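Attaching the record inline, Q. Sequence:
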Amino acid sequence: MYLGFLDMNAGFLVIIAAMIIGLISRSMVTGTYKRFSKVSTGRGLSGARIAREILDSYGLANIGIQEIGGQLTDHYDPRNGVLSLSSGVYKGTSIASVGVAAHEAGHAVQDAMGYSPFKLRQKLVPVASLGSQMLFPLIIGGIFFHMTALYYLGAALYGAALLFQLVTLPVEFDASRRAVVYLEKSGNMTVAELTGVKKVLSAASMTYVAAALASLGQMIWLLLAGRRR
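Structure, as predicted:
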């Protein structure tokens, strides 16, 4: 009983630690983005221009680039082959704008080159979404109706959501790596500007690490709670 209590506390500690890391990482992303969004690149190329150059360098003229609203809402949609950049990134010529645009273009390159983790993540999207939505209804239902199978079904579905979070890590790190490699080879940025890009992308990557840790902590807690039933 005592060991079980310690195990449950350990699960809670992982979740709490992940929440703290998440808050810190989000603050880092916001602060770093704001800082480098005020620093223009020497060549004055916009995020949209950089993204277009990266895509064209891989022969991806078929990938469209569109401007969307919001802040840091940038994403690549493999379903329609469109790269969506927020207004600040699309039009912006700052270090932050270029870094974010290059990163998102990296996802389009991953898709085109058949990067395995990217493909796996796309396949996990439906079940991960279902797992996140159905977790608590199934868990609560399992407890209320004393149905262990229902409880573990919720845990299994959430396991898919956890796998999605874990697979997301190499996908995001690789997209940032591709962005930096291109910018280094293109000669569009100075060493100081590239350092800024790396800081922006590193801060953003921490949010994915925090999300994965939070999901892992919750999964551990669910399994431990189920063992005590």
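The chain has one domain: 2-228. The radius of gyration is 20 Å.

More tomorrow.
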